[in-house]
Amino acid sequence: MMNIQSFGKSIAGALLMAAALHIGAAAAAQPQGEALDPPGEKIRITYLVFSGRPNPTVTVAPGRVYEVVTKELAGARGTGTALKNGDEPSVLSYNGILLEQISADGRISRHVVKGSRLRIESESDSRAVITSSNAARGLEAALLSIGQSYGALDPGLLAFIAKSARP
Q: In what order do the strands lie in the sheet with 117-121?
């Protein structure tokens, strides 16, 4: 029979073990941040799905995948109908995919794609240009595929995104 003292020690040990596992798992699952990325040209892709915890992020260095993303982004930027300037309403759900194109000198150009809409953010002021096109849908599909292949998006998260309302 277990006495109170040994019972208390076993609970304390279990709590310490659970805390250690939680901290280790959180550190291992932490998305790539700017401090972890090597300097140089790259594209950081952030899947805007969570509120209150880090969103899945993939960083793509120059190479085959990088070229696909830049080609799809150029197609989405070069086509489409301009919509009324302004911010899209934020919802507690899927809010799109943030693309941060980082140049070798550290300049960052930001775009957010969700469904047929591409928001192009300006470095010089706070205004954003929003366009709508089928090319933006293609860009979003390519980015979701990249997220899955890099292990940032699991099938459950992809199903959640697919069910979310997209323009």
A: 57-60, 42-47, 97-102, 108-114, 117-121, 128-132, 81-82
Q: Name the DSSP class of 88.
A: P
Quote the tokens at residue 141: 């599909």
Token digits of residue 165 = 């309302």
Reported as a single tens digit per residue, the pLDDT across 117-142 is 999 886 666 677 889 999 999 999 99
Q: Per-residue pLDDT averaged across 52-61, rounded?
A: 94
Say which residues have a Cβ less than 8 Å from residue 153's Cβ, sequence separation at least 6.
47, 56, 144, 147, 161
The ranges assigned to domains in the chain are: 1-30, 33-163
Using CA atoms, how far apart are residues 41 and 107, in angstroms rounded to an integer? 9
Q: Are 114 and 88 in contact (CB under 8 A)?
A: yes
